[in-house]
Amino acid sequence: MENFDFYSPTCFVFGKETENRAGELIKRFGGSKVLIHYGGGSVVRSGLLDRVKSSLSAEGISFVELGGVKPNPRSGLVYEGIDLCRKEGVDFLLAVGGGSTIDSSKAIAAGVVYDGDFWDFYQGKRIEKALPVGTVLTIAAAGSEGSGDSVITKEEGMFKRGASGDAIRPKFSILNPELTQTLPPYQTACGITDIMAHLYERYLTNSKDVEVTDRLIEALLLTMINEGPKVIADPDNYQARANIMWAGTMAHTNACGVGRSQDWLSHMIEHELSAQYDCAHGAGLAVTMPAVFSYELSHNVMRFAQAAVRIWGCQMDFENPERTARAGIEALRNYLCSIGMPKNFAELGAKEEDIPKMVQSLLYGDGGSGKISGFITLGEEDCTKIYQAMV
Ligand code: NZQ
Ligand code: ZN
Fold first, then answer.
1. 133 phi/psi in degrees, rounded to 5
2. Mutation pick for ligand 1 pocket among 104, 151, 174 (CB with most ligand atoms within 8 Å)
3. Atom of ligand 1 nearest to the CA of 38
4. How many other C-beta atoms can be found within 10 angstroms of the C-beta atom of residue 44?
5. What is the pLDDT of residues 159-195, one digit of tens each?
6. Ligand nearest to the CA of residue 141, numbered in listed order
7. Topology at the third CATH level for domain 11-179
């Protein structure tokens, strides 16, 4: 296990009707003028936004609103949010929605207190300072409710890039599993896939002797495998929704990723798909992960075989561990198909002729170095082969 600092200061408030505590929590964390940020309207239709506003009013907290965050959130609305916060003297950001809304809120929070262009953070500058952010989560997926990360797409060039810093870890996150019951099955499945990807990206490590985090990841993946089909079959299954929601948060606070190197190549490769086709991040990952894992397999067959045995219950073939390793990747692919995820470019709506463009953007776009690294290091030929395997 390697040395690490683990800082996860978010207060998680979990359970039924907890959104009514938004006002109390903002007060506790020092907010007095709030920007309520939300997406394309699901929180308006469900009545959640009204309940949150009532909770703020009950505590005498004033607010302004900015809706319209799109999935794969864009830079244009971030600039708008920064201007609005400065004009209105906002001192607290409240994201009501999914990962996209939370990430847009984090970008605004960092941009308001920064003299330069907020995009600097998405080109590698670490976020050291930001307005405080709170969240009311409506989908178990990205894990942004507990992470120090934000992913934004710059409209000029459609570059989808991430920024990080402990300053953007939410002060609080309200997790009411009931709020996820209005999700369409496809979005629910995209969320399940993303959570599983966050676990796999951590499982694929080059660090040795990481038993505790290996076992945590395995437990969370087993939970997802058991609970996922329950919510697809019955969207109102509160207990299964609750287990998935907490697993999603635990998967990405990095509690199960400390002290070990991590992969993230599937995420980098997927981000080009969601930038190019505006597909859901989880759907893109369902197509990407099996292709990336198959490509990485020879780097450490035993790690993939371990995943196959411990997570998917495959029999270990000691004569031919590679067969076991491949069976695990196949089990993942079959599971994702069974919950309604796409398995190839055609089902995702991606086109083979765009591969060179995506490889260029991935490796060289917006200041790229020509290589990406995780469990292994990939160059142009490798990335091209991986995208081709998804066709
Ligand atoms: O916009 P509205 O109308 O709210 O609809 C959303 C959106 O269309 C809908 N939705 C959310 N909750 C709902 C609901 N519909 C009905 N009932 C509800 N309760 O679902 C759609 C997807 O929402 P979005 O916020 O985009 O989903 P998600 O949480 O999957 O976020 C995806 C974004 O997060 C990034 C992804 O790249 C992508 O841009 N990620 C962020 C990470 C982070 N900050 O740590 C890590 C992740 O790996 C990921 O990259
Ligand atoms: Zn993700």
1. -125, 140
2. 151
3. 4
4. 14
5. 999 999 999 999 999 999 999 999 999 999 999 999 9
6. 1
7. Rossmann fold (3.40.50)
